[in-house]
Amino acid sequence: MTEFVRKIIPNAKDDVLAGITVSLAMIPEVVAFAFVAQIDPLVALSGAFIIGLITAIFGGRPGLISGAAGAVAVIFVHMISEGHAKGMAFDVPVENMGYYYLLGTVILMGIIQVGAGVLKLGRFVRLIPHSVMMGFVNGLAIVIFIAQVKMFSHKKLEIGIDGVKKYINIPMEGAELYTTIGFVLLTMGIVWLLPKITTKIPAALTAILVTSTVVILGKFKVSTVGSYIKEGGGAGLSGEFPTPNMEFWQYIPFTLDTLTFILPYAFLAASVGLIESLMTMNLVDELTETRGSGNRECVAQGAGNILSGLFGGTGGCGMIGQTVININAGGRGRLSGVMMALTLLTFLLFADEYIEQVPIAALVGVMVMMVIETFAWSSFRILRKIPKADAIVLIIVSAVTVIYDLAIAVFVGVIISALVFAWENAKRIRARKHIKEDGTKVYEIWGPLFFGSIQDFNNKFDVKNDPEFVEIDFMESRVSDHSALEAIFALVGKYQDAEKKIKIKHLSDECQALMIKASPKLASVIEHDIDDPRYHVMAKALE
Length: 543
Hints:
Layout (H helix, E strand, L loop, with lengths): L1 H7 L3 H26 L3 H18 L7 E2 L2 H19 L8 H22 L11 H20 L3 E7 L5 E7 L2 H24 L5 H16 L6 H7 L14 H6 L4 H33 L5 H17 L6 E2 L1 H9 L5 H16 L2 H4 L4 H15 L3 H5 L5 H16 L2 H21 L3 E6 L5 E9 L4 H6 L9 E11 L2 H16 L3 E5 L3 H10 L7 E2 L5 H10 L1
Parallel strand pairs: 6-7, 7-8, 8-9
Antiparallel strand pairs: 1-4, 2-3, 5-6
Helix pairs in contact: 2-3, 2-4, 2-13, 2-14, 3-12, 3-14, 4-5, 4-11, 5-11, 5-12, 6-16, 6-18, 6-19, 7-8, 7-16, 8-16, 11-12, 11-13, 13-16, 18-19
């Protein structure tokens, strides 16, 4: 039987142990994000189970771990508070209306993500430059580290004058602080040392078990998973098996006003979720030297979010921290993600009293080691060796990820990279000029002609002083966009207005067709020398 399992699931043992390890590391992060979004931690944990299970089974990247991530949770904070206000304005007030709007938003978010997968938009992740990817990894590593630092505090409930509940962090002090730091260091030490002795057992899981045992047997007074949840207003980890949320259909109004309210949040959450998931997928591709399917991952993420919303859970996406822990623990297959989800559900249903005793210090230690391993330390070494533009993009993406959020950081990074690329290519346009024996002036164009190079292209010509016959040869150039076509139209018009004859040679078939379609009279100035052997070689090279 063991041999059969090994053949069907070659990495079964490592996947199972990695999944258990990740499920333990998942709990405090998901709970922390639930507090940020002001929702019940059990709602977030239920969402983590559903999304994690669906994406593990149907996703495009085995080994990628998904759950109720903070990048998505932050988007819902304002929407939930506005939803509560809308609910109180109904003829029959509904106190928890923000939660029902959240479920509707998560379902719509999932639908948008499925649509992105069906339309094969996942392929566009390939357009993200390596400098943006490195900045994304560094920025998220810093964000996760900051989140771990915040664990060295206790939550205190404050009620404002307007009756709004707010939790503030009170830093640990004295013996408790030093004890917690000691257990964090103990956990980190085990995670660092154990792989040097043996790789048969996952270091992170062993570290959590050892530290938890020392804390429980020694009766140390430190923050635990249970105390952390209760300080934030939760009742504990004990939950029920997720079932369809029928109250959602009862309370949420299916009107245009509801759609207008939740659509912006759903679209932003879907975008952030897919960006983080696809970039995490790219990271796993690099770590495992394999390739995942971005479009399949989009559909799986969307399906997971739809089911999560229907079953009363919150939204989520791929989680880089938990994914790196999974990969480092040996998790490579779908079984690791499935095991994470099932273990998380088991904790909620049957083992809540045991998991609540796990010290936060043990989980923080594992996450800090993950941050150390995830951060691209090589970026400091290569900053002076790569182009300045790439170095600037790397730094900006890292900073924006920390200050704002991942989606804005990636968009900014891609836009800057695209502008730099356009600028560099715009400077490559060249024109070699010579006069034929019959007096015809020839302009041989080199480099890409597109919106960025049009001005330099126009500066190459001397319409006023050119002879009566002019040829423009695009043998070693490529007309790339509509702006380039318009530039050629305008140039031909200038020569014709000056009563000079112009011929355009070696345009691609597609370009010729577009120009003649736009202006049939240009057919007389376009010359395609199909017998020129150089054209075939150059055209093939430019494709």
